[in-house]
Specification:
Order of helices and strands: HEHEHEEHEHEHEH
CATH class of one domain: Alpha Beta
Number of helices: 7
Mean pLDDT: 81
Low-confidence stretches: 1-33
Radius of gyration: 30 Å
Shape: globular
Structural class: alpha/beta
Number of strands: 7
Strand content: 15-25%
Distance between the termini: 113 Å
CATH architecture of one domain: 3-Layer(aba) Sandwich
Length: about 160
């Protein structure tokens, strides 16, 4: 008898509003997964076609390397800079981009670790880098060194 009273009073207490368990939250509606960035490795010839079509060219080399020579119209975003991802955020993510470094190594790492997870529709990777571009005789914007320009600093005259 004591046992049934205890059992009944426990059942009553658990069913009271003070002990009522919250209903589980309803699941949020499914959000469509973000489309994954398409990464395409391209040759110099293919890169040239994309550039002619107006793709944004991103040179991932250091500022010094970029100032010496670069593909006409390229933007410089140093892949080794600690603000690289933040600087990428300032670009138009509705347009495809073409990325390169000097030989293709730095840009490959940047593509694998950052750019493939970005929101650009397509990332074209110039696998031969700027070295391949130069070897193919493609045009560059070049800033001559003081010795090349004939304009030596006063201290060297």
């Amino acid at each position: 008898m004591k046992f049934s009273i205890l059992l009944a009073s426990t059942a009553l207490a658990v069913s009271s509003p003070l002990y009522a368990q919250e209903k589980p939250a309803t699941a949020a509606p499914a959000v469509p997964a973000k489309a994954q960035t398409k990464v395409v490795n391209v040759t110099v010839a293919e890169a040239e076609k994309h550039i002619a079509a107006g793709v944004t060219v991103i040179d991932l080399r250091t500022e010094d390397e970029f100032e010496h020579d670069h593909i006409k119209g390229a933007k410089n975003l140093n892949a080794l800079d600690e603000d690289f991802e933040k600087n990428l955020g300032a670009l138009d993510h509705n347009k495809p981009i073409l990325v390169h470094c000097q030989s293709g190594r730095r840009s490959k790492v940047a593509v694998e670790n950052v750019l493939s997870k970005s929101s650009f529709p397509t990332v074209y990777h110039l696998i031969e880098g700027l070295s391949g571009w130069k070897k193919a005789g493609k045009p560059l914007e070049v800033t001559p060194t003081p010795a090349q320009s004939g304009k030596l600093p006063d201290r060297l005259k």
